[in-house]
Design goal:
Structural class: mainly alpha
Strand content: under 5%
Distance between the termini: 114 Å
Helix content: over 70%
Oligomer: single chain
Number of helices: 1
Largest sheet: none
């Protein structure tokens, strides 16, 4: 009788253990996914900073050229 009862418990628990293992695997996969997303977000932030540095560099170069042109034009006109 114990064998039958134990067999039933084992049979009933087997799906529960499988579900528990799947839940652990899903938790690990989500943790890895979150870590990967954080690395991607950090890379995007670095890329965004580089982009803004490039934009400000181009704007500064244009302003410097405009100032130089204004100084040259002002010196010739006067």
């Amino acid at each position: 009788m114990d064998d039958g009862l134990f067999g039933r418990e084992r049979f009933v628990c087997a799906p529960g253990l499988r579900i528990e293992a799947q839940e652990k695997m899903a938790a690990l996969q989500f943790a890895q996914l979150n870590a990967r997303l954080e690395r991607i977000e950090e890379a995007m932030e670095r890329l965004e900073r580089r982009l803004w540095v490039a934009v400000y560099g181009v704007a500064a170069a244009m302003l410097a050229q405009m100032a130089q042109s204004a100084l040259i034009a002002g010196g010739m006109g006067g």
